[in-house]
Design a protein that fits this description.
The structure holds two protein chains of two kinds.
Chain A lengths: L4 E6 L2 H11 L3 E8 L2 E7 L8 E6 L5 H10 L5 E4 L3 H10 L4 E7 L3 E7 L5 E7 L2
Parallel strand pairs in A: 1-4, 5-8
Antiparallel strand pairs in A: 2-3, 3-4, 6-7, 7-8
Chain B lengths: L3 H5 L2 H12 L5 H12 L5 H13 L3 E6 L2 E6 L5 H6 L8
Antiparallel strand pairs in B: 1-2
Helix pairs in contact in B: 2-3
Classes of the chains: A alpha/beta, B alpha+beta.
């Protein structure tokens, strides 16, 4: 068994695709039209073992209040591991990405939090131990 | 408005001010992480939120909503009241 697909709820799938593929560098693994929306998945790297992320439209009425409340308090939805957080922070800032928290050393990791432009915050983490 | 003395009476609230002096515009999430990692304080998120409400009410913290998130910044102006009320004076002078 492996963790095959995990969802991130997004305001707008095209905007999400632009950010996750265009800005962050995810690879598109599926883009299937499904009426109003798409089955749209991306992953980091080209390994088949990598977990896919489904960029899921916020169809269910419970989703928006949930994601809005997390964003308001600055809580990131998931963590992206990086080798050099300062370099990533610099690179992404230059691309216009907004960080709610710049790289901060909290002991075992250095973390930063960024806005995915479609309703979520994501944490970058570089292990220091 | 809560008075500054009540706001300063609590150790968690003083720690929050310590962290906000280090950096303006922090989210609740960042402040909770800093309390846990640097002060060994792990109150619930709701408790931290209530502490921030007291600090905001005393004028020591301002909250700005930017985009989808709320950012907290320290304002030490109200603390001047302490020095004005009790100016520095050594015993016997």
């Amino acid at each position: 068994m492996k963790l095959q697909t995990i969802s991130i709820f997004v305001d707008d799938q095209q905007q999400a695709l632009d950010f996750y593929a265009g800005t962050l560098g995810f690879e598109v693994t599926a883009d299937v039209p499904l009426g109003e929306h798409r089955w749209l998945t991306v992953r980091l790297g080209d390994s088949d073992a990598a977990t896919e992320v489904s960029l899921e439209p916020k169809g269910h009425p419970a989703v928006a209040p949930f994601t809005d409340a997390l964003a308001a308090d600055g809580i990131p939805w998931c963590v992206l591991g990086v080798d050099d957080i300062d370099a990533e922070h610099q690179r992404l800032t230059a691309l216009g990405v907004t960080f709610t928290q710049p790289p901060t050393d909290v002991g075992p990791v250095i973390v930063a939090v960024l806005d995915d432009t479609c309703g979520n915050l994501l944490q970058l983490a570089q292990r220091t131990g | 408005m809560a008075d500054i003395y009540k706001a300063l009476a609590d150790g968690t609230r003083r720690a929050l001010l310590d962290e906000l002096v280090e950096r303006d515009e922090q989210t609740l999430f960042e402040l909770c992480s800093r309390l846990a990692m640097k002060h060994d304080l792990t109150p619930t998120r709701q408790a931290v939120s209530q502490h921030l409400d007291v600090l905001e009410s005393a004028g020591l913290v301002t909250v700005e909503r930017r985009g989808r998130y709320k950012l907290h910044t320290i304002d030490t102006t109200p603390l001047a009241e302490i020095a004005e009320r009790w100016p520095t004076r050594k015993a016997g002078t």
